């Protein structure tokens, strides 16, 4: 876009070249045009930000199951402790995401739970990996190493 400013009978005009068309306008209409352009730019930026957030969300979802299995490989965890550990690692997860995932992993035989008495309140479910879960985690570890190497190679091209 090319802007040309000129003065005609004491009024400053602005000629704007947009896709091979010239629009001549006074400053009043230029301000209106700029406001419209700002809305357009804002819409583009909003779309871009939403796209980026969607990609980041998909990346987190893809890693979440693996990260939970990594935690449960080390020891048994209460669900809120899983959330706390993931938050410490800068992976924010809410209960509404965690519980369905834990239920699915349990249904698939990849984890189990045991009830433990709580110092305050009712007994708590502590989740742990089953032998099947540990076997799958070994496969996922190998896949993660391959993905990590691939990304590193591509980044260093």
Outline the structure in words.
- With 157 residues, this protein is an alpha+beta fold.
- The chain has one domain (2-155): Orthogonal Bundle (Arc Repressor Mutant, subunit A), CATH 1.10.10.10.
- It has 4 helices and 6 strands.
- The strands form 2 sheets. A 3-stranded antiparallel beta sheet has the order 1-2-3. A 3-stranded antiparallel beta sheet has the order 4-6-5.
- α1 (27-74) packs across α4 (131-155).
- The longest helix has 48 residues, at 27-74.
- Residues 1-24 have low confidence and may be disordered.
Question: What layout of secondary structure does this protein have?
Answer:
Blueprint: E1 2-8, E2 11-18, E3 21-26, H1 27-74, E4 77-78, H2 79-88, H3 95-107, E5 111-116, E6 124-129, H4 131-155
Antiparallel strand pairs: 1-2, 2-3, 4-6, 5-6
Helix pairs in contact: 1-4
């Amino acid at each position: 876009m090319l802007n040309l400013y000129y003065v005609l009978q004491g009024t400053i005009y602005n000629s704007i070249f947009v896709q091979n068309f010239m629009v001549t306008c006074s400053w009043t209409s230029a301000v209106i045009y700029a406001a419209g352009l700002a809305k357009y730019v804002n819409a583009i930026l909003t779309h871009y930000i939403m796209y980026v957030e969607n990609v980041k969300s998909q990346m987190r979802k893809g890693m979440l199951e693996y990260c939970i299995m990594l935690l449960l490989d080390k020891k048994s965890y209460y669900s809120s402790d899983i959330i706390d550990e993931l938050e410490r690692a800068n992976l924010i997860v809410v209960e509404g995401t965690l519980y369905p995932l834990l239920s699915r992993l349990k249904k698939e035989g990849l984890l189990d739970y045991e009830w433990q008495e709580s110092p305050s309140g009712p007994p708590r479910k502590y989740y742990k990996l089953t032998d099947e879960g540990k076997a799958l985690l070994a496969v996922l570890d190998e896949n993660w190493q391959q993905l990590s190497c691939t990304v590193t190679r591509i980044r260093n091209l």
